[in-house]
Amino acid sequence: MNNKDNAVALITGASSGIGLVTAKALQKAGYRVFGTSRRALANVDGITMLTCDVTDETSVKNMVAEVLKQAGRIDLLVNNAGIGLLGGAEESSTAQAQALFDVNVFGITRVNNAVLPTMRNQRKGRIVNISSLLGLIPAPYNALYAATKHAVEGYSESLDHELRTFGIRVILVEPAFTRTAFEASITKPDQPLAVYDSVRASMAVVMRNGVSAGDAPEVVADTVLKAATAAVPKRRYTAGKQAGQVRFLRRFMPEALVDKSLRKVNQLPIV
Fold this sequence. Notes:
The chain has helices spanning 17-28, 57-71, 94-104, 106-122, 143-163, 197-212, 217-229, 241-252, 255-265; strands at residues 8-11, 32-37, 48-51, 76-79, 125-130, 168-175, 236-239. By secondary structure, it is an alpha/beta fold. It has one domain: Rossmann fold. Strands 3-2-1-4-5-6-7 form a 7-stranded parallel β-sheet, sandwiched between helices. Helix 1 packs across helix 7 (217-229). The protein is globular, with a radius of gyration of 19 Å. The mean pLDDT is 92. Belongs to the short-chain dehydrogenases/reductases (SDR) family. Residues 7-198 form the Ketoreductase domain.
């Protein structure tokens, strides 16, 4: 993937934040870039914007067909579309949990399934799935969101093994807190319980402060570009210093210390 002449990149959720910044970075690096958004948007900075709802299989198939009609190939797919949910795990109905998985997990599955026949015929391609640091660690009051990212991690590792014989690699990029509007647009639980009101509000402040002090989205974009162009890519790339530190601590620190540290960072009582 080092030769980007005529290489075509497709990135979902490219209307703002990490997705838009990554699309611009790929375009600057020489890719012909197609981005998607749920609502129609004008093209920006050489990026062709297409409408796509990743929860709608027909919408996904039509979008991929349009990319192939215009470009004839897809060399890089970046699955970035996703939504968040902040609240106690029992504060969300099953329907709300399913809706979260429909975007964050099955949305990736739909797009991959639509793109893979082309990549297999090309005998090459690269898929970068945007995961999260919360795909590696527990996340109190983000349990369902973290569950979607843990699912993406397992799915991606398994899919990578299945596709290597076709010249396709699947890679995970794991950001920590990133300075985007993600926190401002996060979903609230649909069946809130008064017993969680205080700590939920406290966790919202923790998240807000984390986002404010987090990495610039360009850090994630640079990591995606590295994953996309590495001759021999790693299975996963942490994006930013904080994500790398937490991954290291999760791997090598005793579980009890990780548990205590996580509760302290999230301002929860050490019990």
